[in-house]
Amino acid sequence: MELAVIWFIAIAILWIGYFVLEGFDFGVGVLLPFMGERDSVDRRVAINSIGPVWDANEVWMITAVGAMLAAFPAWYASMFSGFYVPVFLVLIALIVRGVAFEYRHNRDSARWRLWWDRAIFFGSVVPAFLWGLVFANLVRGVAMGSDHIVTASLLDLFNPYALLGGLTTLSLFTLHGAVFLTLKTDGPVRVRARRAALRSAYVTVPLGAVFFLWTQYAHGDLWTLPLVLVAGGFLAGGVAAAWKRYEGWAFALTALTVLTATTALLVSLFPHVLPSTTDPAFGLTVYNASSADYTLTVMTWVAVAFLPLVLGYQAWSYWVFRKRITGATITGEPEEDRAAA
């Protein structure tokens, strides 16, 4: 297999890992206002459930973008210049969200914490929606000249298919985050999260079905159809498991839904990395957008040396922080039965 194809697969795996792991982070942030009253311990429980891992999860995105720059510089240049506004908004949202996690507890003020909770909410909603919009446009293609410069306007990026893609990722990540909270917390937050998971399923299932059927019809092929069907099966199974209170299975199935759905999008994109709607000949593929073989060879050896260490460290951190979080974990006092609240 050619190195360019191998690195497309590697970058695809990095984006898949990012959406699976950061997806539930975004979902928890979206659900934060509904996990408790203002200045409630329950909100702190929700935040602390992702506290040890959210920044490590973002490393997947940083690595994916860095790999795109090194392995496919033409793809990186065209994509991030053509999608400048959405990507800029994503970065601003992630910065605001990260600052909110760090600053929320720095002052003993309900109003102070409320404003940072709002920052976490919007810092989660914006990237959860815009990443879906960006990747839907990647699959659909954008107007591009023969010099590979994207000529599509900002309004062109907000086309119906891309908007549906954004709403699909937002709803799917919300469901994924709600299921994560049922698995990682106990007490009132766990009860509210289960309720949120079941309610969000009413939105996620129809949106996901329409978006991926549209993707399969307009951009898919024979080898993407099984992925679409399997993703739908995982989603239905995850909702059923949440309903039955099989929380571990529910989280595994929603994670597999994100994995197979993202895989279906990237498989439908291959061998292109950025199709052109102006003229197919103007589009970028893994072959005309890649770096030289020497660069890809060096990158391969670096990845082989360091990737196991990174994966091992992240797996270890998840294992260390695997226990459920309750109000007693936050306050140090016995947890009262507030599940009915």
What's this, in brief?
Helices cover 74% and strands 1% of the residues.
Structural account:
By secondary structure, this protein is mainly alpha-helical. It contains 13 helices and two strands; from the N terminus they run H-H-H-H-H-H-H-H-H-H-H-E-E-H-H. It has helices spanning 3-31, 41-50, 54-71, 73-82, 84-103, 110-140, 154-157, 160-184, 188-219, 225-243, 247-269, 293-320, 327-331; strands spanning 272-274, 284-285. A two-stranded antiparallel ribbon has the order 1-2. Helix 1 (3-31) runs antiparallel to helix 3, helix 6 (110-140) crosses helix 8 and helix 9 packs parallel to helix 11. The chain is globular. The chain starts with a helix and ends in a 10-residue tail after the last helix.
Topology:
Elements lengths: L2 H29 L9 H10 L3 H18 L1 H10 L1 H20 L6 H31 L13 H4 L2 H25 L3 H32 L5 H19 L3 H23 L2 E3 L9 E2 L7 H28 L6 H5 L10
Antiparallel strand pairs: 1-2
Helix pairs in contact: 1-3, 1-6, 1-8, 1-11, 3-4, 5-6, 6-8, 6-11, 8-9, 8-11, 9-10, 9-11, 10-11
